[in-house]
Amino acid sequence: MQHPTYQRQWPEGFIWGSATAAAQIEGAGREGGKEDSIWDHFARIPGAIANGENLDQAVDHYHRMPQDVRLMKELGLDSYRFSTSWARVRPGDRAVNREGLDFYSRLVDELLEAGILPWLTLYHWDLPQALEEKGGWANRDTAYRFAEYANDVYSALGDRVQHWTTFNEPFCSSLLGYGSGVHAPGRQEPAAAIAAVHHQHLAHGLAVNALRERGAQHLGITLNLSNSIPRNSQDPVDLDAARRFDSLQNRIFLDPILRGAYPEDSLRDLGPFGLPDVILPGDLELISAPLEFLGVNHYHDDLISGHADDAGSDGHSGGAERASASPWIGSEDIAFPSRGLPRTAMGWEVNPDGLRKLLVRLGEEYPSLPPLYITENGAAYEDTVSPDGAVHDVERTRFILDHVASVGEAIDQGADVRGYFVWSLLDNFEWSWGYGKRFGIVRVDYGTLERTVKDSGKAYAGLIAAAQRSTSRLAPALPA
Ligand code: GBH
């Protein structure tokens, strides 16, 4: 593949990786002492997941882990971002399950042996169902249970894992899980969704403080962020809708963590849904504890209109039949018109320059911004397998290389970005869309579960090799 990105030089120590999540790949839903997470439970609700699919087997990573690590090594990954399953580590939220922790301990050993840096996320959406039955994230107590679970994982892996991420995309596990109901637990209760936002923040803060005390040195959180672009920047109705979208998608997550306060306008807009009431004295001090990194997941921008009849864009709903509500609490009038750009199989518009814009904006607007890592970026396309078994996924390859180029431009413009993780290593369980949407740079045959590196995987491996050559050439000699 000829792409200008192969030629550029990257900052020293820049990390190239790929990401997955426990619920999306592991399977072994009832093995090794694991009990149900909210996603196992949700998958049994008729119409919740496309084609009635479930996570019971997923892509069988639980049994194929050593082989999957060999694949990562073949690709030349510097780092692998994965999540631990709370329902495997503390099934039913009872005592710690040794067998569950042992699985992750073996994974970490395999990674280190292969020279791959483990990048661990504690929560990628799979709350133990037993805790949902006590109110889930709408219940403040869940935050304290999370800190206990974080401590358990740290006790088992803290000697070998250096990079700890508390949450992946709290937007989804609060507003989609408790607001729109497109994600587990499938609740459609605006006040519960807003409480979930705050309680996940609190859980993050409690865990950061607990792991910090135990000596953790690289702590962060991953947010999914999107540029909010008013359709007509002269139209006050569009401008206000874009402001409210930016509040719910970006700022209610960024500001408590990076500034120690919710934005004034968010507090005002979300007052009727109880945001001010769930914030107790001392919470924001905990939540804004300093971090070593911010993980950014970015897939697409959002063009925003305040005129409901402007709706035209898909890509803003789940894949299943079950009726969804709006995740835009108090702002159900927000509409997503189309810009006419090419779209991925998710219906998301492709605009690589959006990633540069987002990274530069973060640096401009948040003076205390820690170093950034792109912890997810990638695309679903409908792959076809050639007669020779290869997958010539030209569109995904271009998507990845163009977005990596955009990261490079952001760095040139001053953004402190230190790594890029492509979503995803493997085709996997795409939440309410089931197995119908493939994001992998490695194909999984859902009949045989066999893995095949796609052209995008080969291109990514080539990019990593080229980047490593350029950095080592540039690297100053280390003092003796
Ligand atoms: C990530 O989230 C996840 O971390 C990962 O597990 C997943 O597999 C991957 O991306 C691909 O989807 O209008 O309310 O429906 C995806 C981030 C957030 C992007 C929700 C689309 C639509 C919001 N997504 N967003 S809504």
TrEMBL record:
It catalyses: Hydrolysis of terminal, non-reducing beta-D-glucosyl residues with release of beta-D-glucose. The active site is at E376 (nucleophile). Pfam families: Glyco_hydro_1 (PF00232). Keywords: Carbohydrate metabolism, Cellulose degradation, Glycosidase, Hydrolase, Polysaccharide degradation. PROSITE patterns: GLYCOSYL_HYDROL_F1_1. The keyword Coiled coil does not apply. InterPro entries: GH (IPR017853), Glyco_hydro_1 (IPR001360), Glyco_hydro_1_AS (IPR018120), Glyco_hydro_1_beta-glucosidase (IPR017736). Its EC number is 3.2.1.21. It is an enzyme of class 3 (hydrolase). NCBIfam families: BGL (TIGR03356). Belongs to the glycosyl hydrolase 1 family. This is Beta-glucosidase.
